[in-house]
Amino acid sequence: MKPNLSFQIYYSTQNLPTNWDSLTPKNIFLSKDYLSILEKSAPTNMVCYFIGIFKENELVGISLAQKINLSKVNSLGERDHCFKTMIKNFLFKKFISNVLVIGNNMLTGQNCFCFSDQINLEDGITALHEATHALTDQLKSQKKKIHLTVYKDFLTTNTQLFKTSKFKSYYHFNTQPNMVFNIKESWNSIDDYIGDLNKKYRDQYKRARKKAIGIDKRKLSLDEIKKSHYRINELYLNVAQNAPFNTFYLSENHFEVFKKKLHDNFLFYGYFIDEKLIGFNTLIKNGEDIDTYFLGYDESCQREKMLYLNMLYDMIGYSINKKYKRIIFARTALEIKSSVGAIPVEMIGLIKHKNYFINLLMAKSFAYFEPKTEWKERNPFK
């Protein structure tokens, strides 16, 4: 690390420098407001830490780190109960259950750091690497073990930043891509979007909308979110527990805390049939982007009403109307997101095990726990 750069690790957002937000004008996910929400409503198996990087006592970089204890969740989901899954869970808890993530494990995309123009990316990454080492040592002194260190979600254009001796022992990986929907300047409404679809996908849109007849969709206030607290959590878990891989489950007050702190920057939409909540989705306003957040639904209604696909179309319609430039659809459900026009953006990460010999086998073991997803990319436009 350059001698004029230093770092500070913070254990609470209350202790962050007063000018922290001066580095986050384009990314709400590193702002004090968001980080304080994360601190208050993080999953029970997650603890957050905050890193400030300084150049001659001036704040020039910020980052987020998260310690995750995978032994507190069924990481491989609830769908499979076979012997192979039991073995995987055992190995998880024994050898890789304690993970330090540099970045945000609850989001997809480059939300790891923000640097000012006072330093270049290479120096910032070097300082972040030193801070990571220091944090690991601090946690070790507190008898909090770390099996794995992960630097999460960087664009492939950033690969060169990590081709240094400091990261030589890290395994470079990429999992499912970030699905990003780019909004054309010529679109002023959902009708413009539909007009650019080819016949097959126009028919898909019409079929989905016909299936949704009878569903009442509306934006929920903080009070309404509180009133539907238990049902919301039930619908969220219906989806989360059937995912092939989990590193956390949201706390029960998660959405309430978000709405209370972010106000209209956090949107919660409920879907009702005869006043019964059958599904919901959430959006976060982030500069010129809309980030899709967590959702939930009743599985029987999802199939009958094509609920998930209708949610995607609703997100697209809202974002076009409000003149956003992109929708960050994140990972999972790659093919259906592709069918509405999202494109895959490859992301890279780095991972290292504290045990030298296990680390030598990282490439094979990573493929074992995170098998490649097979899917077919679609192009719905003319």
Tell me what the structure shows:
The chain has helices spanning 32-41, 83-95, 121-141, 190-195, 199-211, 222-227, 229-240, 254-262, 299-305, 307-321, 334-339, 356-360, 362-369; strands at 5-10, 46-55, 58-69, 98-102, 113-115, 148-155, 171-173, 178-182, 216-219, 266-273, 276-286, 289-297, 326-330, 343-345, 347-353. It is an alpha+beta fold and 382 residues long. It has 2 domains: 5-168, Aminopeptidase (3-Layer(aba) Sandwich); 179-345, Aminopeptidase (3-Layer(aba) Sandwich). The strands form 2 sheets. Strands 1, 2, 3, 4, 5, 6, 7 and 15 form an 8-stranded mixed beta sheet that branches. It has a 7-stranded mixed beta sheet with strand order 9-10-11-12-13-8-14, sandwiched between helices. Helix 1 runs antiparallel to helix 8 and helix 5 packs across helix 10 (307-321). The longest helix is centred in the middle third of the chain and has 21 residues, at 121-141. The radius of gyration is 21 Å and the shape is globular. The model is unreliable at 76-80 (pLDDT under 50).
